[in-house]
Amino acid sequence: MPGPGRYDDILDTFTRHVAERGYDGVNFGSMAAELGISKGTIVHHFGTKDRLLAALHENYMNKRIAELEYMIEHLATPPEQLAAALHAFIIYHDYDRSPTVAFQREAVRFADHESMATGARLRQDYFVLVREIVEAGLTAGFFRPVDVGVDTLLMFGSAQWAWTWFRPDGPEPVEAVASAFVDLVLGSLLTDRSSLAELSNPAGHPAAIVRDALSHVAEGRHQERTGAAVPA
Question: Among candidates 87, 77, 90, which has minimal Cα distance to 190?
Fold first, then answer.
């Protein structure tokens, strides 16, 4: 008989299937067969496939927000905070591979559907956190004048498609790709580039804080958000 852990098992299996096949390639029958449960058990926990996708988005974004908040709290300057966020954008493609691929390949699926409203607010929360780092860096003179909204969207857009080409078993380790991404973005933003080597260094302080943040959240030492709206 299915135990209390079936909810997480179902969500994990759905996430992996979406990463491998895309949303349209997933069906309750194949999931149920793999898990050794009935399709009715999946319906009991989630109701519909779009609600499963919503749960995937909410679970993913709650972890990413908690990690980013940890990075912001434990790093002193906007360049360090942004470097950590950029390292993390790429590291997720290895550290949390299936959820990241599943989330990114279906990020706009049912974007305006009521079931996705909480996930959409969480994505906006995350975007605002990153945008505020860029704004703070600009105000303090660390970054040159830019269109903060456009530049933040470009950062997300660049990382959003990494799932289509990056492979954990490819020729370049994820740390090297993350370092190149930090160098590319901060190299164009910093008014003083003397700190760029440290900021992009996979063994540097911002990258170390990313690893601390991943451990902190993986161990469950954070509170999940409810998706309350944040002003744009």
Answer: 77
Interval 109-145: pLDDT, tens? 767 788 788 998 999 999 999 999 999 999 999 999 9
Token pair of 71 as six digits = 């990075």
Residue type, 113: H
Measured distance CA(147)–CA(155) in Å, rounded? 12
Per-residue pLDDT of 179-203, as tens digits, reads: 999 999 999 999 999 999 999 999 9
Say if pTM beats, i.e. exceeds, 0.85.
Answer: yes
| CA distance linking residue 14 with residue 34, whole number of Å | 11
Q: What is the structure's pLDDT at 41?
A: 93
CB 158 within 8 A of CB 186: no
pLDDT of residue 228: 40
**7 φ/ψ angles, rounded to the nearest 5 degrees:** -55, -55
Which residue ranges form the domains of the chain, and what is each CATH number? Answer: 1-47 (1.10.10.60), 55-218 (1.10.357.10)
